[in-house]
Predict the structure.
Amino acid sequence: MKENGKYRKYDGVAAANTVQGLRSRSLLGRKFTGAVSYSRKHPQEFVLHVLTFALLCLWIYVGSKKVFTYAEFRASMIRQPFADQYGIILSYILPAVELATGILFIFEGTKRLGFWLTLILMLVFSGYVILALRDTWGSIPCDCILEFPISWKAHLCVNGLITIACAVGLLIDRKIRISHRKKLMTKLGS
């Protein structure tokens, strides 16, 4: 390659070496380098993408686990300390709501709704765990419905972390939307 003013002139050898260098790096290496570059240029968008992907995976996992082990899940819902008809209704509603929440994170237009729904669900689930830990029903309900083999206190901490992640995601999303709106108004005003 030879420099000539602003432009570079490629001779056959330099161009072949450049192409060969690109081919020799693995696809995973190129993707990783691209992600690192993107995260440096757009740190807020990168964090928002990571949170979105993590919540998408979480909801698809917990919803599909309930669907694939439905008989066991339904039985555990009926054993909860509320009337059996509520347990039956919840055994249908919860997996559907969890899967729908995960699907909301797939599309850019519904991502914010996914964050809000996750925030609401985490507050409800955390309230239920707090009631269980305060021994509201005389004993702690069976922990067989927990998605991960952790204690009730640890489950409350995980719910708290997910709630904080949702709040951060919503704040970053709002900040990005405001920034894009300001840029658009500046362009339209010019």
About this structure: The helical segments are 12-24, 27-41, 43-68, 70-78, 84-104, 111-133, 152-189. The longest helix spans residues 152-189. The chain has seven helices and two strands. The chain has a mean pLDDT of 83.
